[in-house]
Specification:
By secondary structure, the protein is of the alpha/beta class. About 30% of the residues are buried. α19 packs across α20. The protein is built from 24 helices and 12 strands. It has 5 domains: about 30-285, no CATH class; about 290-330; about 360-505, 3-Layer(aba) Sandwich (Glutaredoxin); about 505-585, FHIPEP family, domain 3 (Helicase, Ruva Protein, domain 3, Orthogonal Bundle), CATH 1.10.8; about 590-695, Rossmann fold. The chain has a 4-stranded mixed beta sheet, with helices on one face. It has a 4-stranded antiparallel beta sheet with strand order 6-7-5-8.
Length: about 700
Amino acid sequence: MATNTVATPASFEPIDRGGFLTGLGTPAVMLMMLAMIVLPLPPTALDLLFTVSISLSIMVLMASVYATRPLDFGVFPTVLLLATLMRLALNVASTRVVLLNGHTGTDSAGRVIEAFGEFVVGGSYAVGLVLFTILVVINFVVVTKGATRVSEVTARFTLDAMPGKQMAIDADLNAGLISQQEALDRRERVTRESDFYGAMDGASKFVRGDAVAGILILLINIIGGFAIGTLQHGLDASQAAQNYVLLTIGDGLVAQIPSMLLSTATAIIVTRISGEQDMSAEVSRQLTENPKVLYVAAGIVGVMGLVPGMPNLVFLSIATLLAVAGYLRSQQALPDVVVEEAPELEQSRSTNELSWEDVSSLDQIGLEVGYRLIPLVDAAQGGDLLSRIKGVRKKLSQELGFLVDSVHIRDNLDLGPNKYRISIHGVSMGEGEVIPDRELAINPGQVFGDIDGIPTKDPTFGLDALWIDPSQRDAAQMAGYTVVDSSTVIATHLSQLLKNNAAKLIGQDDVQQLLDRLKQSSPKLVENLVPGVMSLAEVTRVIHSLLEEGVPIRDMRTIAETLSISRAPEGSPDERTAQVRVALGASIFQSVAGASNELPVMVLDPQLEQMMSHAVQNNQGVIEPNLLETMVRGIGEAAGKMEAEGAIPVLLVSGIIRGFLSKLLRGRMSNFYILAYEEIPGDKNIRVVTTVGSTPE
């Protein structure tokens, strides 16, 4: 018997009826606007739609006021467009009703228009014209024009500041201050911000055009209504003006008030700065935060209240309220005073004998700060340096493949008040100076415009920088500067120094811990390696060599397997390191070239490379000094050209001389890689950019 089979889809997603109905809102509004333009509407429908328009404008204004940051109301440009089109469609519908039925009386176009024409302007079309003109001047000349200009400037500077903001995000990510997900979120926020202000630049033109359209519609309706009333319906001039002009003014006011509300909302959105509070809370807090402002205002208003002829009671009452508010604010601003008793001096122990406690041990990683930088370390005073350093340790531990030791922080009165010093094993690795109450604006190489500040150098990379006031942060970012605070400056400097001196951070105990972790998954491998093939000290020397050349040790399994089958003679860590590098070739290639399958490189002249290989094999690296100097200079020039072309400088040589050149150039060049031919994976390609050196005659 044949069976019927019914093919069903692999997956079936039910319709979200709530989302479906919600999504019909915008199309319904568009269809409704089309209907208002084409179909005649009864006065009752006009009343309803005018009420909806006013309500929508009030909702948009309140949403703008209570948004903590502009992106919280990111749909504002679209809402502005829809509200403007809806109001213009209402103008067309109301114009049709006024011109057709205006001869019957002032109630012919609905109660809303009649109310605005009779009640708001007192039934006088002359007063209505004056009031409408004032509203148009305020809306068009002041609010709309200002909002349009601010939108244009903000959009331009936001787009100009995007590279600087992206570099700041990358700097925080590289310093371990933020995670990968946080970096993605911040990049998305920057992109959304640029899209939003670009859309606002265009949306502000809707508001400006709406104001102009309101003026033209009013004039056309007055002229057309007066002509229809007198010529078509036989009304006298005064009756025609009373009916048509009053209805037209009422219609104009009904449309102009929502237009002003939307213009105000636009100005609020484009002029506000992102914060943790909504605009009303920010305005209230910043206006009354300083009691001196309230006291001075109270004094001035009080003096005005004493002038004869002034409404003394009103002025003096307001002055009293301001003075009381200033007093209450000053009481809130007083800090809680905590009196601490001086601790009693400890009774000193017998000093006749010394102990090991009197011998201070060296900190593996130390950070000394001047006394003005202590608040950066104290979380109670709002300092976040400890959390930044924790992020740096976590980031480096993930990148390098071992746990970076804790950073011991202490104050040092011998340092300058704003200086800090970073040390490893008690040896100073770097120093710097920061200004706690300022931020560092770093010039990445291309900026737009000048920023006032104190000239300095970035302590990490030596770039030109300025110490600026925190209020200049947005302006500096828009100009292309990368702006960071003092804690970030210290954390970034610490991260770079620890990365450059990673080999000094790991000892035999740390290597043993790495082997113990590997032993949990590969016990035979570890037992065969230590002490079967190598001692713990020999493994540590190989680990040090890898880290000195910037090779992470995350893949401890591959390192251990390579060392366990190493054919290098005993006591030859360089050869063992070379064998491990070959095994880690794919990882090294990826760290340099990223996702690309092709790596641009520079190579040595074949004769020069052969000469150096012979010298390294036979003379233990003894090479004529002039030849070395010429070669180093040539490599430096070639590296500079590759960096100018946007490529990472990579020198590709034979494995015989790779180690020798690495030691020779390690301290002379930064961000420079020396790879051996054997380290390039078979499925990867190289592209020779330049050849360095020539055979001396």
